[in-house]
Design goal:
The chain is of the alpha/beta class. The protein folds into 2 domains: 227 residues, 3-Layer(aba) Sandwich (Alkaline Phosphatase, subunit A), CATH 3.40.720.10; 137 residues, no CATH class. It is built from 10 helices and 9 strands. Strands 6-7-8-9 form a 4-stranded antiparallel sheet, covered by helices on one side. Strands 2-1-3 form a 3-stranded parallel sheet, sandwiched between helices. Strands 4-5 form a two-stranded antiparallel ribbon. 30% of the residues are buried.
Length: 377
Amino acid sequence: MTRLPNILKRAGYRTGIIGKLHVDPGASFQFDSRLGNYKDALDMKLVAERVDKFLTQSADQPFFLMVNYTDPHAYRPGGTGSNTIGDWSFRDRVKGIPETLVEPSEKTVLPFQRIDTPEQRKRVAGYYNSVKRMDIGVGMLLENLKRSGHADNTLVIFIGAHGPPFNRGKVTVYEGGLRVPFIVRWPGVSKPMRSSAMVSTVDILPTILDAAGATTDIKRHGRSLRPALADADAAWREYLVGEHHLHGPPWFPQRAIRDARYKLIHNLLADLTKPAGQVDGDIGYTVSREDRYAGTDIRAAFDTFANPPEFELYDLEKDPWEFNNLEGKSEYAEVEARMKDALLAWRQETDDPALDPSFHERVQKDILARVRARRKK
């Protein structure tokens, strides 16, 4: 099988996972060690203890360990299945962590929303506190590596799964959804720096295989990060592509591509349906309906978020959080055409199943069948 832990297992690595594995079928991932679940990964001290256990059991054997923290994540108090607006919250503290809290202020207004209310400031502060807790947990993990003697021979990759769980963030292909933390520490290769290289999660597999000296004949669309980690000015890719498929009904797939300045979004089914317009109970869209936002670019951006056209085009140099859609404007026609060609080329190169119209029909039927089955339970 071509899954990463399986490849490394064949290369002589001991493999482990702490926290949830959010892919099915989970059994196809051949981890030697599975420690803890979704809820356990909220307890930073417990995660650190399990990392210690894994490292001790690995002894001198090379290892691959995936640690999936639950933070930062919204949750539904009481364990309800509701997605009601405002029904989700954030854990400020878990078992005393963090000791010092981020308080609501003008600094807890998200730049990709610019929605400023006391309630939203509080929600964002809660999100930042869960980020702070996870950051403390990562520090514990790095201390484990140091104590075990592996700090100088272990590649560490830290990445966020998606953007913040707020409207125009998570489950979108806006910058608020795609721009995630991506930190790499590769002893003997990386240098302390911040790079503007347009790296992607497709680069993770080639990087790990490079570090491990492992081989596989699977087709790859990324490349090892080694050059970009050694030189902040290393030549990298011209275009960066992002995708969104599904986070529950309705089926509203999106594709996006950007270069150093411009960003094009293709909403594949814009003429047929609309996105859910809601993620984890966020209140952003609802607040944007208030009279004080009428006629503003904030209202316009949330209108586009809830009812997107087929294409959106943004100048990220002038408009980094995508509030002004330039699609269809004559002065950007050449840019738009170039970006559309580049996106289509990527989709063809990666065998995007959504290029086939019948694929959408099959997915929609499958979603309906799953919803009906769930309702019968």
